[in-house]
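ingest -> validate -> predict -> emit
validate: passed (alphabet ok, no gaps, 180 aa)
predict: started
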Amino acid sequence: METFITEKKLVNNPDFVKQKEKCLSGLTDDMIDRPILNLVNKLNRLSFCFTLQSCYGHFVYKGQNEPANLEPLPSISDIEKVEYRIAYLALCLENSESGKTFLQELKGLEQIDPQNIQFGSAVWFWQRQINSYAIQVEPDKYKTRDSVIIDYQEALRIEKTRNEFYKHLRICLNKYFTEN
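emit:
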């Protein structure tokens, strides 16, 4: 998120439902990274939330040049440098009690790894959709960048954090649904 900033306050948005319908009308499953497809679909089923964009988080390195690589990093490797394309969710929340509660729950996910998970707003998204927020898995020192070159050991740590982040978000969402 090249325009990542501190979170903005929720404001009144009487057009939330119409905006959600419009945004989701063009969304198809093939536009979403497979590992987070069910997660994104659950977020969009919440009455007080909808997604704007998402990315699972991809690792590109010597021998793995697929920009949208979904494979885990190899456990033993001679890889020195990895291009990490950030994992993130950009979403819009309704200014309601449920939206405010969920906002706090999302902010709490930073505690999984405060050095590598940030919650806030992104200027680019807010200009197009008020009450939009982003939560991302990215080393804090690079939090304003969409991708970064890191060493292999740091990439392994980021991959672990990314996986924990999605696991905890799924747990958080499960309380809103009866099925898993």
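The first strand starts at residue 4 and ends at 5.
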